Amino acid sequence: MSKQVIYNPEARQRLLQGINAVARAASVTLGSAGPAVMIQHRTAGIMPIFTRDGVTVANAIVMEDRIADLGARMLRDVAGSVSREVGDGTTTAIVLAQSLASEALKSVAAGFHPLQLQKGMELALTLVEQHLQKTAVTGVTEDWLEKIALVASKGEAGVGKLLSQALSELGDDGSLSFQLGNGRDDQLEVVEGIHYEQGFLSPYFITDKTRAEAVLERPYILLYDREISDFIDLVPILEEVAAEGRPLLLIAESVSEKALAGLLLNHVRGVFKVVAVKPPGFGDGRINRLSDLAVLTGGTAILEAHALRLEQVKLTQLGQAQRAVIIEGSTTIIGAAGAREPVVERIEALRRTLAVVRARKPGEGSASGNLHEAEELEERICVLSGKTGTFSVGGITDVEIKERLVRIENAYLSAKAAMEEGVLPGGGVGLFRSQVILNEIIAENAEQQQGIAIIKNALGAPMRQLLVNCDLNSEEVMMRLCAQADPQFAFDMQHQCYGHFLDIGIIDSVKVVRMALRKAVSVVGTLISSDTVIMNVPDLSIMDGYSPEWAAATREDPRL
């Protein structure tokens, strides 16, 4: 295939066109006053996507000019990388990257060496990151988390309270999942114990008809990865369990109708108390889920790889718990009897694996495959942690609910990030005030000094964009902030008032801001150090003489 070679300055200018196009579309979503963007769905007849999320806007833009699209892809990668690591701050990263790219390319055109500019920018980045971490306010309280969630969710007070409650109840190990709600109001449900979405195999297992649930007190738990085809195979272990005067929770891949009939008959007659359910997960992942449950309950998963038959299972191989509650669509196991140390070790191992999956760059494996693997690991960590929450996002229309779901999930991730590294003044003030530390830095040469100046100028870009979105005078606000010596003095753009950032509730997560700046500097450094673009020239000769009308007219009728 032939190649097209594009040299500078044309290459960089066309790349900048793509960057500016994405930044212009996404930057309007920054802040609580930022408007939304409507994106046509790729399938005709389906409602458009209504979003105020920067990464969603960036991913929707594909430029006709293939060189410009490379620039647009750089911003898509920046926003996607920030989204994968901290969830929030994608629009801030786009605004920073656009400001850095514009000034850096001007400097390169003026004769500054790209690699020296890049060194200066990296030096400034290191100093700003250290300053942000040093000045961060740590010891995050529930009130702060509520305010962070309020800002990140674009000013929805009720959402901030629910997310703060979720973080308080779930802690560091718990996980919160988000789903489309069925009503107008948001709902939060936090469940203690092991919880997963698989219910009883038959309503005849119900023990509490009023609540339509099967409740087992101090059950033994049998974990089996194959189909139970014959009730006779279960008789030995059922007799041992019955001799202890305790019920059995049977978690198996499937139970045949013949075996299920035997279980139900004895259960209804009161010979022994048993409930059969399926394990969590799907496909090959169920083996891992059964192993997780075995660690939690202190039992042994009876797997096909062990070559152990069902009739050979002993009482000592069963897990135990204080209580199990099974309804039509879910199973909850409370007070699992497994030792805590193996559970903690497994959680840490899964977190290390999850970090590796999240660190994969675009092109390393299937995007959907990586996402599925990360979600599977997150769900396993959630089950092992012993606490899980579900946030049902409400609204009037599907378009509204889907738009709110993205915002609320980002707000939750931003609040979680604040718990890791602390908080700083929001509304772009934290980055804007970091300009001070770059004033007295003297680099090795003038080119590196220019790189520092580029970073210094970009640090004010998010605040300027926020003020533009709020239709406020940016120069007036910035002068007022500069005149105030207190570094924690901030500006509430929605209510147009000044004050201590914790008092007025304008709070940002240090980790979110820091990652947005780091990713922006990284991609712009790559941009300015590239001098030539080489592209494949598509071969269109294969379409010569092709007529869609002729093809349709000569196609055979499949009904003949």
UniProtKB/TrEMBL annotation:
Among PROSITE patterns, the record links this protein to: CHAPERONINS_CPN60
What processes does the entry annotate via GO biological process terms? protein refolding
Q: Which UniProt keywords apply?
A: ATP-binding, Chaperone, Cytoplasm, Isomerase, Nucleotide-binding
Please name the SUPFAM superfamilies in this protein's record.
GroEL apical domain-like, GroEL equatorial domain-like, GroEL-intermediate domain like
One MF term in GO for this entry?
isomerase activity
Q: How does it assemble?
A: Forms a cylinder of 14 subunits composed of two heptameric rings stacked back-to-back. Interacts with the co-chaperonin GroES.
- Enumerate the PANTHER family for this protein: 60 KDA HEAT SHOCK PROTEIN, MITOCHONDRIAL
Q: Which protein is depicted?
A: 60 kDa chaperonin
Q: Which organism is it from?
A: Methylomonas lenta
